[in-house]
Amino acid sequence: MNTATQVPPAGGPGAPAGPLPPPDVFDRMCPSRGVLEHVTSRWGVLVLGALHERGYRFSELRRRITGVSEKMLAQTLQTLERDGFVLREAHPVIPPRVDYSLTPLGREASRLVAELAHWTEERVPAVLAARDEYDARGR
Known about the structure:
Order of helices and strands: HHEHHEEH
Largest sheet: 3 strands, antiparallel
């Protein structure tokens, strides 16, 4: 029997437990919600936005995203790498050098995030005006 064409038995290692339900980000059990949380987290948005510009070394990325701690940046990069958005490339040189860039999936997500970030920057005056109006009503 040709083992190259055999299909592993159902329920074997790596086999799904059954058909996946359709994605529904509003369902707390849907994996898409976790992915959305990673992409749209405070630091996830900024990391994807920065890497949309170009690849960065860790220290450069930390300087680009002011206010992020080293620990939070490392955790965010690790999470985005695990999800397949970020590529981490360690170079065997002294001193050690690690470069971060986007995968094809990461480039797709970063385009959307960058568009939202630019929209946000452009709409700050309208948001500030809305806040002033709200505050003036005494709520």
